[in-house]
Amino acid sequence: MEITTVDLDAPPQLWARWVAQAAALATIGYRDVYWIDGAGAHHDDHGGNHARLVLIDGDRAVLFGYDHEYSRTVDYSPPIDLLAGAPEWLPRAELTSAANIDQLGYVYWYDKAWHRVAYPHDLGDDGLLATVREVIDDQQALLALREIVFEWGRHGPDSVQERTSVDAAADRLLAAAYARAVDETVLWNLLGRISVVQPDPRAGVAAAARGGGTPGSAAPFVPASAARPVRRRVRALSDEQHQQLVWTAMRQAPELSRPDEMTYPMSPELGALIAWARGRAPGGDGRCSVLFQLEIDGSSEQPGQFPPATREGENSWVAYREASDLARALWTAENSGGRGRWLFLRLETTADGFHLERRWDSWPEWWEYDGITGPWLDKLNAEMTHRSPQWRPDWAVLLDPEVAWSGPPDRYAHLL
């Protein structure tokens, strides 16, 4: 994997801004958003997004994190190995552990300059700015300190004069963090104006001291990693590739032999669906087509040759909802226990007859494949788990999450 150099401020600058954010937030009672301990500098927004900056012996550092909305690296197709070609001294055990559970969106390492693996040109974002915007440069740091006063601390009045005063006090706090001179006075000047909570500058000084931001304190450095972990898992398939693999296998699969299921007696649920379809015939002649794909908590519909008509003044969603409810009632009534539930259904009616086709184990040719939508992996997994082993089609082996890491069995490798 190609390695690229990245234009980020040096670790001491990022660290000082981290100290300023941690001290200010701790002063008003937030000690677990930006903070520093022996393992490095942390950020956690408590919404599933996080970042770490770790200072490493030898004037080196690593910055890593994850944002569940913006870290496109995690689900990019084909997968991106964020540690390919990275130096041995990184804390690989922790980074690998995060990557193994899709919680590693970016890794930047510093050794005279910042580096990371090169990204595809169309990647978009890795989550860096979303998780460490408040420390990325002085301007963002000062804006974040202002927000701590007016948003976190709910301070008022929010006037031009007061903002000017807050900005000046924020600038003094940031300068103190750079100079490793954070004290109660500089924190009180910024946050003592807040009345909604009782500021505690001693807590802020303690937070700064843990990061080496006060006189006589020292920032924590960790030793360089001695060696690679014995085993590092790297994804063979992205989620998208895994999904496409299963869908391709389903489209090529035969149905298992189910002679008795093919001769279901007329049930009240089937009769209700047939009557509904005839009543919705677009030409008023009883000819109607209803196509459904059902899952345990969802459904999809596609138009057939004679899609159900929408009545005057009626939203098309009403017709879909009615048909979906009737199809689900039939799906539930025909649940064969260990034999499973069908995945696809096609009903075609005429004025005095009907044709019904169910698919339990394969993707039918009459269900359009757009490469984007279909039965999702977790839903298929739930269905196959519900079935007895002998009623699981061969492609069910592809539902194992391990396939995304190790790749498919050899007999399915040609489908990639």
Structural class: alpha+beta
Query: What is the molecular shape?
Result: elongated
> Which band does the percent of strand residues land in?
15-25%
pLDDT < 50 runs, ≥5 residues: none
Largest sheet data: 8 strands, mixed
Over the alpha carbons, how many angstroms does the gyration radius reach? 30 Å
Quaternary status: single chain
Question: What does it look like?
Answer:
- 35% of the residues lie in helices and 15% in strands.
- By secondary structure, it is an alpha+beta fold.
- A hairpin with a 3-residue loop joins strand 4 (50-56) and strand 5.
- The protein is elongated.
- The model has no long low-confidence stretch (mean pLDDT 94).
Please specify the SSE layout and strand pairing.
Blueprint: E1 3-6, H1 11-27, E2 34-37, E3 40-44, E4 50-56, E5 60-66, H2 92-100, E6 106-111, E7 114-117, H3 128-136, H4 138-152, H5 160-178, H6 184-191, H7 201-210, E8 221-222, H8 239-252, H9 268-279, E9 288-295, E10 298-302, H10 316-333, E11 344-349, E12 354-359, H11 377-386, H12 403-406
Helix pairs in contact: 1-4, 1-5, 1-7, 3-4, 4-5, 5-6, 6-7, 9-10
